[in-house]
Amino acid sequence: MDLNSERPSDNVVHRSTTTGKVDVAADVVGTEAQQYDAAIERRVIRRIDLFVIPFLWIGYGFVYYDKAILGGASIFGLITALDLRVVVDPTTTPPKTSTQRLSWASSLFYFGMLAGVIPLTYAFQRLHLSRTIGACVVIWGLTCMATALVTTHQGLYVQRFFLGFLESMLPTAFMVIVSSFYTQKEQTWRQCLWYSATGGWTVIGAGLNYGFASINSGNLQRWQYLYIMAGALTVLYGLLFFLFPQTPNTAFFLHGQEKTIALERLRRSQMGVRCNTIKGSQIKEALTDPKVYLIALMMGLAYTVNGAVSAFGPLIVSTFGYSPLTAILWQMPLGGVCFVTILLCGYLSLIIPNIRLIMIIFNCLPVMAGCAMIWKSSWTHHAATPLAGYTLIGFFAPVTSLIVSMGMVNVAGNTKKSAMASATFFMYCVGNIVGPFWIKTEQVAQHYPMLWKGILGSYSVLVLVAAILYIMLRRENQRRDATGLDQQEGEKHAFEDLTDKENPWFRYAY
């Protein structure tokens, strides 16, 4: 498969078709590379790390916790209160029931994300970044709190759809923000840092859910308190987002020369910082770029696990002979595996070049082993084997975090980066939609065979796609290296908002 349908000339820069609409950094640092002190650069990186990464980590934690609440709420009375479990065959003993309504409640969240990802992604590119995201987060928090007012499963469907619509902005925004503050080499580690919130907040969320389980007073049910708390914290976070800088040169935590260096050091990556103009040519290029489709497909395949685990995890663990409260606590080891492996793989990508796709392949193997252990083991009271397999599934987290990084470090041009983020997140939603419907509660005696077959098949295809992408990107880099273009000449074009195909100095990371 050919990486570029239209390869750039070896000696000619293919400029953006929209003359004059360049990256915002061009007005600050110009076209000529400037020398700067390495000690000051280290200080700049440290200050960006101390502000940007914790802020994104907390924000993505709220995104993840909002989704995961459904799993905890389902064993705190939500299923009964909103009639999410229905009897499908009253003649059996006990009567056969179905939780398809719970599956729909989980999946409609991602249908909302699908509806919101494209318009909201381009809204934060075209409009003021911090104000647009901040306003969206505040409304999302209020919507989350409103879940406590829902009295029917139809009302939950509507609420989940709009919650997903509003939350769709944050993951894509965070991907683009990191690509605007860090060099290509630094990005995977930083993307993994904020993405590790999926594991960290699995642990934190399990602790919060367990704490709320002890509430026995008040007029509300325990699941209602969960949504009110999560929504209130989200509103506060949204208000703080209004202070977030649009670009490094507007960051309040950088001073004087530091702002210029924060931009100048990004020149060598040939990825740009930010351009507010939406360029049709870059959208067209994204639509014809094979790697956009392959990376997005990888994300969809990887996230079939999460769609099932986030909504049904505690219920699945409870079938291993554990009480509902203990099942909540058993989410902590899963979260711990997610957290540690994301950080480990992110750090390895920082010190070992072009290891991302290799790590994706190797992290798929424990996920597949875990699924097989759950499916084929005996589900006796407090069985250890399926519980160990459930914990191994946590290796899906570094797979998805590395895929996020692959999308962001391998495209250039602000509009194309937004398109890549949208495509990746679109397939993220598809994977999360599909997963819950593989769980058939009437198949519990057979250990949910459709679920484990679906995940094993998805991850087998994922390994194959990762291997194909590795070959494609490596060959294209070798072809570009053979042209022998002058690196100093390439630095002059770093902030012209060129795409990776338009810019022959761009190199892919794999």
Automatic annotation (TrEMBL):
It is a multi-pass membrane protein. Keywords: Membrane, Transmembrane, Transmembrane helix, Transport. It holds the Pfam family MFS_1. SUPFAM superfamilies: MFS general substrate transporter. The keyword Zinc-finger does not apply. The chain crosses the membrane at residues 50-82, 102-122, 129-149, 161-181, 193-213, 225-244, 292-316, 328-350, 357-375, 387-412, 419-439, 451-473. It is found in: Membrane. One of its GO terms (molecular function) is transmembrane transporter activity. One of its GO terms (cellular component) is membrane. Residues 52-478 form the Major facilitator superfamily (MFS) profile domain. The keyword Cytoplasm does not apply. InterPro entries: MFS, MFS_dom, MFS_trans_sf. This is Putative transporter.
